[in-house]
């Protein structure tokens, strides 16, 4: 048949989504299923990897049914996934040995502090481009091995396997205990703290440092390459790509050239800048990470600025304060006033990420007077996302020596016009939203389609990218400078809130 | 004449019950008070919850009146919410049709543009969100007039404002056009607002089939219409499918 599709699987933090795209990169069908968030103790966040797999078993065939096609009309499957979340499972039974530990989980904070104090800790950032922190996988693996009796021995024998979500799903899709392929892609591997950022292979020094046995690790493969053929969900279809969700969005936004950047606005926000085939080391609080790797071509690197709380602040206004009924209503509320009334909210709920990396900071609302209404708070909520973006862009410009000329955006918050205009205003560059807002899924689809020749080359993909909306800067430069100064002063007031002696 | 609908009577009784006293009741309390089986009460409560008339407290599982009941008079779907819920399908429609897409709602006798997707040709275009357009001269506006009795009631009697030679002139003419729109389920505007421009639109429905907005494409007549100046049927199908997909996501019954 002439009409064939590419399937993407977006295994996200709150849900798993399955989307079929056609040759024009257009969305044909969408299915989605949320999975349960387990919070067994304060600071712990877990997922049931088996539940996620079962969800995929449901939504995969449903996406095909919605488009009235069979697996035979799917050219390839690509996977994008929540990054760093750690799954350990038994290779013989295919059953996870514990619940998956989610990137937000902070159970390793003591361990991380201990590791970071070691005299040889400097080697970590030098080898893998990341600093030791709770959300990367290596400390989690170590913690699980230390706290589960007998697990280390089983891992050393290779009876227990490690993987991030894409590894787990690829292994299950390709047969599980019956010949499942145990692989990971470079972008996901680059978030473990175990991969050498230059050689793109597991590094013995790092494995030693974290005490992780090599036998449990998947094989590192390019992001875009056929890993195997599915025997479940979409039998007979090639699994041809995997990328961490943020890297998938970079690919879906067709940021293929050095200097191109995108920001995905969801629960948190992630700005990635393509820096080409050489890793750029940050001196301004950004992460060095792999952007993507096509087959045996050289890997393309990216600088990443991660912002912990953006959409989550809107959720807090909704669920924590009950000021709005749904997230989009924040815009209605914010438009009920003309400005922030002098009020600023810095959402350092669990410290600040890029570019500050202050884990002891906590959130504040400053500038409160009796004049402030909930409308002003709503403005301050949206502006917090704008200013946090500005801080990351300033750091990117300083690290890369390039000046960002335009920002491509995607994610749930891009439906908010007031926010998008504000971001254009404070960055003083055009903000553009592509026709397909589901760039994470699209990126995974593009990658898989490229691997199997469904799309010929990057240029072809670029031609599929179309502008759906654009916001141009329109803020008076004096006002911008004043407001930025106010924001920065507000940020400073969040520092040093948690006392160093107080350890949880 | 058929008798009263039992489940509606029961739903009304449940709402009355919740409106009295502290207003937070568990399933058994509600079922016992009204002498209903738990299953029956639960079914009705779930439906009431779906339409927003009842809310369930996550921690205690108890039911109370929903916020939607308190705001029954005001617009029941926030326009920013509508945009968020429709954005994927609006993008898909623009990509498929190759034309600009807009979503509109009724605001005080005018059509308010709440979402706009550029024509996918990467030419310079500016966002129209927030713009007010005439109801009787646009495809989206006519869809809303056809399905939203309040919007229709806001149209003054007599002669209508003219934007081009083809704009509908009188309320009588308009009434005839609207019944035609209700018959086919979509509306068109061929050079009724602007010479050389045409548009096609279909209704977006929410729970119970209530029309909450309109979604449509617009572009040059020669691209939107066939040689007889009638909207191309393939484009009409794209528009209707997209509006239906949004409606389905908003919880509308299938039609
Ligand atoms: N119109 C809006 N205005 C402001 N914030 C919004 C709006 N719509 C959604 N949000 C926020 O965006 C976030 C949801 O975005 P998105 O659906 O992209 O989630 P996500 O972080 O990608 O989740 P996942 O990891 O499960 O895919 C929520 O935090 C929500 O509060």
From TrEMBL, chain A:
Residues 5-252 form the Carbohydrate kinase FGGY N-terminal domain. Residues 261-451 form the Carbohydrate kinase FGGY C-terminal domain. GO terms for biological process: glycerol catabolic process; glycerol-3-phosphate metabolic process. ATP binds at residues 13-15, 267, 311, 315, 412. Glycerol binds at residues 83-84, 135, 245-246. PROSITE patterns: FGGY_KINASES_2 (PS00445). Gene3D superfamilies: 3.30.420.40. One of its GO terms (molecular function) is ATP binding. GO terms for cellular component: cytosol. Pathway: Polyol metabolism; glycerol degradation via glycerol kinase pathway; sn-glycerol 3-phosphate from glycerol: step 1/1. It comes from the Bacteria. It catalyses: glycerol + ATP = sn-glycerol 3-phosphate + ADP + H(+). Inhibited by fructose 1,6-bisphosphate (FBP). Pfam families: FGGY_C, FGGY_N. CDD domains: ASKHA_NBD_FGGY_GK. HAMAP family: Glycerol_kin. NCBIfam families: glycerol_kin (TIGR01311), PRK00047.1 (NF000756). Belongs to the FGGY kinase family. This is Glycerol kinase. It comes from Planotetraspora thailandica. The gene is glpK_2.
From TrEMBL, chain B:
Residues 68-252 form the IclR-ED domain. SMART domains: HTH_ICLR. The keyword Transcription regulation applies. It comes from Planotetraspora thailandica. It comes from the Bacteria. This is Glycerol operon regulatory protein. The lineage of its organism: Bacteria, Bacillati, Actinomycetota, Actinomycetes, Streptosporangiales. Keywords: DNA-binding, Glycerol metabolism, Transcription, Transcription regulation. GO terms for biological process: glycerol metabolic process; negative regulation of DNA-templated transcription.
